[in-house]
Amino acid sequence: MDTAQAVEAIKRRLSLKEVVSRYVALKPAGRGRWKGLCPFHQEKTPSFYVDEEKGLFHCFGCKAGGDLFAFVEKIEGLDFMGALERLAEEAGVEIPKGGAPAKRRELLDVLKLSQEYFLEGLKASLEAQEYLQRRGLSPESIARFGLGYAPAKGDGLLTHLTRHGISPEEGLKAGVLAEKDGRFYDRFRNRITFPIRDHLGRIVAFTGRALGDETPKYLNSPETPLFRKREVLFAYPEAKAKLRQGRAIVVEGLFDAIALHQMGFAEAVAVLGSGLSEEQARLLEMQEVREVYLAFDADEAGQRATLQSLDLSLARKFLFYAVRLPSKDPGDLLLLPEGPALFQKALEEALPEVEFRFQEATRGLDLTRPEHKRKVLEALTPRMLSPEPFDPVADRLKALVVERLGLSLRQLEDYLASLKRGRRPPPQPPKAEPKNRVLLLELDVMALLLSVPEERFAEWVHHTALHVWPPEGSLLSEFLELASREPRRDYLRQVLSRKEAGGILLERLMLVPSVDEPRFPEILEKTLARLREAYYLERRAKLKEELSRNPSMEILREIQELDQAIEAERRIYRKL
């Protein structure tokens, strides 16, 4: 099987809509079509469409578009061969040997084998099982989240991997082995293991919780080509379905996330650091989350993490609430019969972002003292200096500052304006793609040709080449030349989507209606007539300029011939 055959086999086995829906919450938008918020730029109104019949996606806002492979390339930051490898593995399609780097797959294999070892370790350890029972976790939760145990033995996993043909160096790259003075050993020992899964549900790392007095209490895999903790949310794959209802509960601890799921709060996810990163917030945005309840630990560090999360520029897309926990962390509630009810009450009493910010800024201060008022104002200023003209949180915060600090709105606005004056102007938006009439008509022809069945494609390309004469160097000229050499629609889409006008071509492909085969010749002929007319009009405009500079009967006769040709083309597409 060559690469082209592998691509076709993958597309037959994998649904574009299903792959895209792992990243974007899609809603029906007509027969065989879905829409959602674009994952490639920030927007509030959906302009991102998936057409299953055509096998294309396109954003009418940022112009991103293409097929299944183009989507995976862009969303995962891969090249074509990396996307081919990723999708081939999922579809069970064999790709040509040497056709793609194997590093990512090898790392995934190492992590799968490590998980097998940890699961067996938990089955064999009564101590580890009893620990999980004392934490209140049910067998169903333990199985669902894949909790395991790394035995205290220092080379147990090393031996297990070696037995399966995995070298110590590969185990080191995957983050499950460590090395000191040239000696390899198990990174996780005598620890409960939590598999960390990415948004596709693949294990990309582990966290180990010490059973004894070992330090640190929690040990994470190092960052690898597969794993960056800023880009991953623990329990995200398990929470996806509930997140699409619009609410997320974000906690710090992995136990906390599992406990909340067990108590019925299946929209819970956990950060792997001290606060919510922009990459993690984008994962929530992809599921159309609107409300984010931050339930970090009730200690001072937890409160700082809450504030850190609220400072994100991306956070302006969410309504944030700070949950005041009745215990140190949500996991403690699992041991209480009334735990679910207590957490539900905490959610209902959660402070909106504005109130939370003001309370935190005024903690320990006396608002009757002018110097303390200034401290509060300075603490709240960054959030009030919003770049968005309609930011409800910034507006409400201003109103609260005016009300409780005794300032007039004019004084506050003057103060904020004085701070803004030193700022650089926002960057200019990217230039729009060229949109002249001839180019658009060429793209219409190309879109029509790319919409015909594969078995008729070469025939209609040949027909078009005989009935239209694009100028040398034009996009259509390049398309016809490429199509005559390599008459494969997928290949041409990939090549052309990277051109300057590629976004418009994909837009045209999404907009071109499904054409009944008997009517296709008529529709193509009308489109070619409009394009030939546009070529004639361009030539006529140039001749008229030349005629004004250098009057000539020869130029005049050519203009008259062009007028006749233009009228003939109009009769074709008007059916006169």
UniProtKB/TrEMBL annotation:
Family assignment from sequence similarity: Belongs to the DnaG primase family.
Residues annotated as domain Toprim: 246-326
Upper classification of the organism: Bacteria, Thermotogati, Deinococcota, Deinococci, Thermales
EC number: 2.7.7.101
Name of the protein in question: DNA primase
Matching SUPFAM superfamilies: DNA primase core, Zinc beta-ribbon
Gene it is expressed from: dnaG
Subunit structure: Monomer. Interacts with DnaB.
Gene3D superfamilies with a match to the protein in the record: 3.40.1360.10, DNA primase, catalytic core, N-terminal domain, Zinc finger, CHC2-type domain
Function: RNA polymerase that catalyzes the synthesis of short RNA molecules used as primers for DNA polymerase during DNA replication.
